[in-house]
Amino acid sequence: EVNAYEIKSFLTSGYRGLFPLASLVSHQCVQNCRMVWNTEAPYDNKVVAAQDLKAGEEIATSYLRPSMCSLVRRKTIKEGWYFDCECSRCQDPTELGSHANTLLCPACGTGHMYPLHPLDYNSVWVCKCAHEETSQAVTGLVQGFLDEIKTVYENDRYNVAQWLDMHARAKVYF
Hints:
Strand order of the largest sheet: 7-8-9-10
Distance between the termini: 34 Å
Largest sheet: 4 strands, antiparallel
Oligomer: single chain
């Protein structure tokens, strides 16, 4: 399963396949190539450079959506591919300036909270005002919103009032 790829089809639920050469492409959260999949028989794939590559440079794609925050992304990689990503994006508390993993500080309301040690799953989250949150509290907050998003999407996706209410509650934290 680790080296299998899901090929999505618009007509069926999709297929799983083994692509030996594609399985050699490494993961980095900031990819330098993209995988292009044929969703019809013969279900082949191509690796296409997303930027100029230097001779000998490692070819890397992202196994997950780039919009995913490292709090969720690193856990998903650990559980699905059995390694800890330690790429430059995962090492940086600001995620290379994207702030995809940044919380607004509930104490001062203006500061940003980051994990003190981004590669430590149990790192305390800190703000410049000295306020701290445990990793468990932050994970619970993020997972709570992700679960709510999934529930609304699956059960009542056209309920604009519900989305606006969730947005109002989320913007206090994110």
